[in-house]
Design goal:
There is one protein chain. This protein has 422 residues and is mainly beta. The strands form two sheets. The chain has an 18-stranded antiparallel β-barrel. 29% of the residues are buried.
């Protein structure tokens, strides 16, 4: 499929470039799966929901997160763990159109990390982009989006060397477009996504830097989706995805050719029953072909992203996925992550919310003896001081067990934050 599908995806993206997002194959994701993270505060609602600032036909929603954090294993090592306090400043904005027809949203964020004890861990991430919808006719839409980000690889990434003096920086460019036809109960969507990864060299302690050109790649995904609303708020769907991945280097650092292509077919249920239950759940089959001696990855595919609010006080969240991530680990076709996460929000008072979560990820490196398992849990308290200001106290725990000696770790993270929004 390779060349023709790339042309088709790029053609669709060009067609939608005037409308700045429709997700494509959910079984593929960016690098860094398995990274530890503190639980985030549940979205503000009711009296505490952001009001925004009117700007002509738009409304601006600015926000700022300030955090003081303590991490007892910043390098995610099995032994000789190093701890440090670090500070985080994260300003962000969303600019939303308020039009009756069409839609255009612009967004951006910046995250600056400063470590008290290990300044070489200091780094700044940022991202910016937009998405939108062009209403052509009743029931016919053209959607699309694009973004660019400068990020740093998590210390939990198996491709991040333990001897790295600083986290590896990479740039991620994304674009997506889709044509949607949804008359009455039926819906039909055809679209595509494009992702480009560009890695900087990894600086090592006392050694020459590692060239990461062999990790740079382009990922093209095309998809077709058909849905039918069989009852108000419930729709079943079938989606077929096809993907092609092209690496910048013909051979990686281990002499392996890593270009790959594959497909998946999924069927599932979408739910939008007022505020009681929203989201989707699906299952299917995936097949990703790699050049020998790398092994083909295939089998059952699944995903879920469901929110359930049985009472005004409780909200439950379920997320699950099977994700194939690119890797340069010798003999491994891909980092095959199968994950599930459960979370619950409880409104202790109108201005106080408690959130708890637990998660598990089985990370299999197909063709390699390495097999990792991640377990995570945490709790978060969010207290609204005013309509626009909230304080946050959180704790997160993560552990990794590995079939390779010395690759496991455990980590405790405590966060104290102040969140501001308008």
């Amino acid at each position: 499929m390779c060349r023709y599908m790339r042309f088709a995806v790029l053609g669709a993206l060009c067609l939608a470039s005037t409308s700045l997002v429709t997700p494509a194959a959910a079984q593929y994701a960016a690098a860094g799966v398995g990274a530890a993270a503190a639980p985030t505060a549940p979205a503000a609602e009711g009296d505490y929901a952001p009001k925004g600032l009117p700007l002509g036909g738009f409304r601006l929603f600015p926000s700022l997160q300030l955090g003081a954090n303590y991490d007892d294993n910043i390098y995610r090592t099995d032994t000789n763990a190093k701890d440090s306090f670090y500070f985080l400043e994260q300003p962000a904005f969303i600019l939303q159109s308020q039009w009756g027809l069409h839609k255009l949203d612009l967004f951006g964020s910046l995250g600056s990390y400063q470590y008290a004890s290990y300044s070489h861990e200091n780094h700044t991430d940022w991202s910016a982009g937009g998405d939108g919808r062009l209403d052509i006719l009743r029931g016919i839409d053209l959607t699309g989006g694009g973004s660019y980000a400068t990020l740093h690889e998590a210390r939990t990434s198996p491709d991040q060397p333990f001897a790295a003096s600083t986290p590896t920086q990479y740039r991620l460019s994304k674009a997506n477009a889709a044509f949607e036809y949804h008359p009455y109960h039926f819906g039909f969507t055809v679209g595509g996504t494009y992702m480009h990864y560009d890695y900087s060299a990894t600086s090592l302690i006392g050694l020459p830097p590692v060239d990461n050109t062999d990790r740079n790649r382009d990922e093209y995904t095309g998809y077709v989706k058909a849905s039918y609303e069989f009852s108000p708020g419930y729709a079943m769907f079938v989606q077929a995805n096809e993907r092609d991945v092209q690496y910048a280097a013909a051979l990686d650092r281990n002499g392996l050719h890593r270009d790959n292509h594959g497909y998946s077919v999924n069927g599932g249920l979408e739910m939008a029953l007022t505020d009681l239950i929203t989201g989707q759940i699906y299952g299917g089959y995936l097949n990703e072909h790699y050049t020998a001696p790398l092994k083909t990855v295939s089998g059952f595919n699944f995903g879920a992203d469901v929110d359930w609010t049985p009472t005004p006080l409780w909200t439950f969240h379920l997320t699950a996925s099977r994700l194939l991530n690119g890797t340069t680990i010798d003999n491994a076709s891909a980092e095959d992550d199968q994950s599930v996460r459960l979370a619950a929000d409880y409104k202790f008072r109108r201005d106080v919310t408690i959130q708890a979560f637990g998660g598990y990820t089985d990370s299999n490196f197909n063709g390699s003896p390495r097999h990792d398992k991640y377990t995570s849990a945490g709790v978060n308290l969010n207290y609204y001081l005013t309509r626009s200001v909230s304080a946050q106290l959180g704790y997160a725990y993560q552990t990794r067990s590995s079939s390779l000696a010395g690759q496991g770790f455990s980590d405790n993270l405590i966060t104290l934050g102040l969140n501001l929004h308008l």
